[in-house]
Design goal:
381 residues, globular, 13 helices, Immunoglobulin-like, five-stranded mixed beta sheet, alpha+beta
């Protein structure tokens, strides 16, 4: 299957980690059948700080040699089979010894990665099977719902989306229950980081308590544990009446942008979006109307894009006349500080004291009507 209190956590400013944390090197050879469609089967790896895509061009004669740096206990090699609207992942964990992962299955299916040989790589099959046995009822309900309705959910059916969120939440809560019973298993810590923290949106404090009270300090104080702490803090601290997480970044023209520079001066509207996101583009006329109505001194608008294709991103800005506000490309650090929500667009309004006074997710403000009213009240012309 796929996808309040304020906590101030010390020592989590990971943008300068490269100077102090331990780095280890890895290499892995991936071998795939020549019949595989490289648009349908894709690979990436999790190095403890980020998930790095492995371009299809890396494969020469169906073999790819991948090497890099990692900061976690293992490098997780992620094999993904895309069968829209379904995405099937398998995970392989390696360390510093050169590894080989060779696949043999020729028929595309959700079991495409089951037939393989491993050298210096493991799958944590026992832990995963125990988890699947524990959440079998909830997992089955989720899979049955997805098999019939997932495409409609992706196409925007709100009723089915709400039903799906409830079914998925039940499964994630069962998974957290199992994790609390088995907190020292690294695979479950990694599973929590990948599959629960980004997806569980019912009660962020439940996720925080599971992380903070269940896992050993060796996991929580690791590089990936600290990064996860930032994400979970961002989930909690980006609700209304909290001080907005601070950030310093660079815009598309490499100008320095710091949130604190606007304190006591301006309101700040933060928008997390992408050019490929249809709902994001659909609401641009409304956001443009805000820019036209309010001066740049009264309302600073900062747009954080998650676009990977920089050429398409820039052309979207130009072709859609979106250069009249601050554009920030691919700032993953700020995304993490704001909780790295697994859905966009995300919109926040921050007052001139640095307090969050509007969170679109909390307001369930689909058409930005509530935001328009709040701006009219807060920034009278």
């Amino acid at each position: 299957m796929r996808r309040m209190l304020k906590y101030l956590l010390p020592g989590l400013f990971f943008f300068c980690w490269g100077k102090s944390i331990a780095q280890k090197s890895f290499s892995v050879t991936l071998i795939i059948p020549k019949e595989w469609d490289k648009k349908q089967v894709v690979f990436s790896y999790d190095n403890g700080i980020d998930v790095v895509a492995i371009p299809p061009s890396t494969f020469i004669n169906n073999k790819a040699l991948v090497s890099g740096i990692y900061y976690s206990k293992y490098v997780a090699v992620i094999a993904t089979y895309i069968d829209y609207p379904f995405i099937h992942d398998s995970f392989f964990f390696i360390k510093e010894k050169p590894a080989i992962i060779a696949f043999f299955s020729f028929q595309p299916s959700k079991h495409i990665f089951d037939s393989c040989s491993l050298e210096n790589a493991i799958e944590f099959k026992e832990e995963n099977e125990r988890l699947q046995k524990y959440d079998s009822t909830e997992r089955r309900r989720c899979e049955e719902f997805e098999s019939v309705n997932l495409k409609k959910v992706y196409e925007g059916d709100e009723h089915l989306r709400d039903e799906y969120n409830k079914i998925r939440t039940d499964k994630l809560e069962k998974d957290m229950e199992f994790i609390r019973l088995n907190p020292t298993a690294y695979y479950l810590f990694w599973y929590f980081k990948r599959n629960i923290a980004p997806l569980y949106t019912e009660n962020f404090e439940t996720v925080w308590r599971t992380f903070n009270s269940s896992f050993p300090d060796s996991f929580k104080n690791s590089v990936e544990g600290q990064r996860l702490s930032i994400l979970l803090s961002g989930r909690i601290n980006t609700t209304k009446h909290h001080t907005a997480p601070d950030f310093t970044t660079a815009d598309i023209n490499r100008n320095r942008i710091a949130l604190k520079d606007y304190y006591d001066k301006s309101y700040v509207l933060l928008v997390f979006w992408a050019s490929w996101c249809a709902p994001c583009m659909q609401e641009m006329p409304v956001l443009k109307s805000f820019r036209k109505k309010y001066s740049k001194n009264d309302l600073v608008m900062i747009f954080f894009s998650s676009d990977k294709d920089s050429v398409k991103y820039r052309s979207t800005l130009i072709n859609n006349h979106m250069m009249d506000w601050i554009n920030v490309p691919r700032d993953k650090e700020t995304y993490y500080r704001y909780g790295y929500k697994n859905y966009i667009p995300q919109v926040y309004l921050i007052d001139n004291k640095g307090q969050i006074v509007y969170s679109r997710n909390e307001e369930n403000d689909i058409d930005l009507v509530k935001l328009r009213r709040l701006l009219t009240k807060r920034l009278p012309l």
